[in-house]
Amino acid sequence: MKTRKTERKINKLSYKAKVLGSQGRPRLGVFRSNQHVYAFLVNDQEGKTLLSVNDLQLKNIQGTKTKVAFEVGKQLAKEAKEIRIKTVVFDRSGFLYHGRVKALAEGAREGGLEF
């Protein structure tokens, strides 16, 4: 019997096999737990994480978890601009494109990232 967790892992691996990030266009990965949300930019060719942002770093944000995810996306876009990254490949890591994952993506788009 497949559980939700194993389904997500299968989806994550099949998607990651198709989409790879590079130096010019890194992969924007997302992880969400029950309480927190994490976003990171990865260059898969070199196996290096270029940048990571999470809601634990943003202390002064109040509101719902969806609003916090939106702000994490905006902060990621701001820091990506500083290291001259404009375009990314979005990797939802097997999570549905809904709720906090969608809010993070919209925040990154509003911050100036293209995907």
TrEMBL record:
GO terms for molecular function: 5S rRNA binding; structural constituent of ribosome. One of its GO terms (biological process) is translation. Pfam families: Ribosomal_L18p. GO terms for cellular component: cytosolic large ribosomal subunit. This is one of the proteins that bind and probably mediate the attachment of the 5S RNA into the large ribosomal subunit, where it forms part of the central protuberance. Part of the 50S ribosomal subunit; part of the 5S rRNA/L5/L18/L25 subcomplex. Contacts the 5S and 23S rRNAs. Belongs to the universal ribosomal protein uL18 family. HAMAP family: Ribosomal_uL18_B (MF_01337_B). This is Large ribosomal subunit protein uL18. It comes from Candidatus Woykebacteria bacterium RBG_13_40_7b.
